[in-house]
Amino acid sequence: MTFTEPLDLQRILINNLAGNTEIFTFIAFIAIGAITAMLKIPRLATMALLGLFAVMFADYFPAIYLLTVVIAGMIAANATSKLITR
Question: What is the pLDDT of residues 14-23, one digit of tens each?
Protein backbone atom coordinates (compact mmCIF):
# COMPACT_ATOMS: atom_id res chain seq x y z
CA MET A 1 0.00 0.00 0.00
CA THR A 2 1.37 3.40 -0.94
CA PHE A 3 1.44 6.49 1.21
CA THR A 4 -0.95 9.24 0.14
CA GLU A 5 -0.60 12.81 1.36
CA PRO A 6 -3.69 14.01 3.27
CA LEU A 7 -4.69 16.79 0.85
CA ASP A 8 -3.39 15.32 -2.40
CA LEU A 9 -6.80 15.45 -4.09
CA GLN A 10 -5.49 14.54 -7.53
CA ARG A 11 -4.07 11.25 -6.27
CA ILE A 12 -7.01 10.51 -3.97
CA LEU A 13 -9.80 11.29 -6.41
CA ILE A 14 -8.33 10.51 -9.80
CA ASN A 15 -5.82 7.71 -9.23
CA ASN A 16 -7.35 5.86 -6.29
CA LEU A 17 -11.06 6.37 -7.03
CA ALA A 18 -11.31 5.99 -10.78
CA GLY A 19 -7.95 4.82 -12.07
CA ASN A 20 -7.41 7.44 -14.76
CA THR A 21 -8.51 10.94 -15.67
CA GLU A 22 -11.04 10.06 -18.37
CA ILE A 23 -13.00 7.68 -16.15
CA PHE A 24 -12.94 10.14 -13.24
CA THR A 25 -14.21 12.96 -15.45
CA PHE A 26 -17.05 10.80 -16.78
CA ILE A 27 -18.02 9.72 -13.24
CA ALA A 28 -17.88 13.35 -12.12
CA PHE A 29 -20.15 14.46 -14.99
CA ILE A 30 -22.71 11.82 -14.02
CA ALA A 31 -22.49 12.86 -10.36
CA ILE A 32 -22.88 16.57 -11.22
CA GLY A 33 -25.89 15.73 -13.41
CA ALA A 34 -27.48 13.69 -10.63
CA ILE A 35 -26.90 16.37 -7.99
CA THR A 36 -28.29 19.15 -10.19
CA ALA A 37 -31.32 16.98 -11.00
CA MET A 38 -32.02 16.28 -7.32
CA LEU A 39 -31.71 19.99 -6.50
CA LYS A 40 -33.79 20.94 -9.59
CA ILE A 41 -31.16 23.31 -10.95
CA PRO A 42 -31.98 24.58 -14.49
CA ARG A 43 -30.25 22.96 -17.45
CA LEU A 44 -28.40 26.14 -18.44
CA ALA A 45 -26.82 26.35 -14.99
CA THR A 46 -26.00 22.63 -15.17
CA MET A 47 -24.25 23.09 -18.50
CA ALA A 48 -22.32 26.03 -17.02
CA LEU A 49 -21.18 23.85 -14.09
CA LEU A 50 -20.15 21.05 -16.45
CA GLY A 51 -18.28 23.56 -18.63
CA LEU A 52 -16.42 24.96 -15.63
CA PHE A 53 -15.49 21.44 -14.56
CA ALA A 54 -14.18 20.72 -18.07
CA VAL A 55 -12.10 23.90 -18.05
CA MET A 56 -10.61 22.93 -14.68
CA PHE A 57 -9.53 19.55 -16.04
CA ALA A 58 -8.27 20.87 -19.40
CA ASP A 59 -4.70 20.71 -18.11
CA TYR A 60 -4.81 16.98 -17.31
CA PHE A 61 -5.52 15.49 -20.73
CA PRO A 62 -5.58 16.50 -24.44
CA ALA A 63 -8.34 18.56 -25.99
CA ILE A 64 -9.78 15.80 -28.18
CA TYR A 65 -10.34 13.61 -25.13
CA LEU A 66 -11.80 16.61 -23.33
CA LEU A 67 -14.29 17.20 -26.14
CA THR A 68 -15.29 13.53 -26.26
CA VAL A 69 -15.68 13.21 -22.51
CA VAL A 70 -17.58 16.52 -22.26
CA ILE A 71 -20.10 15.47 -24.90
CA ALA A 72 -20.52 11.98 -23.43
CA GLY A 73 -20.73 13.43 -19.93
CA MET A 74 -23.39 15.97 -20.89
CA ILE A 75 -25.47 13.25 -22.52
CA ALA A 76 -25.06 11.04 -19.45
CA ALA A 77 -25.89 13.94 -17.12
CA ASN A 78 -29.02 14.71 -19.12
CA ALA A 79 -30.11 11.06 -19.05
CA THR A 80 -29.38 10.82 -15.33
CA SER A 81 -31.41 13.94 -14.62
CA LYS A 82 -34.37 12.52 -16.53
CA LEU A 83 -34.16 9.25 -14.58
CA ILE A 84 -33.94 10.96 -11.21
CA THR A 85 -36.76 13.46 -11.76
CA ARG A 86 -39.30 10.81 -12.80
Answer: 778 888 877 8
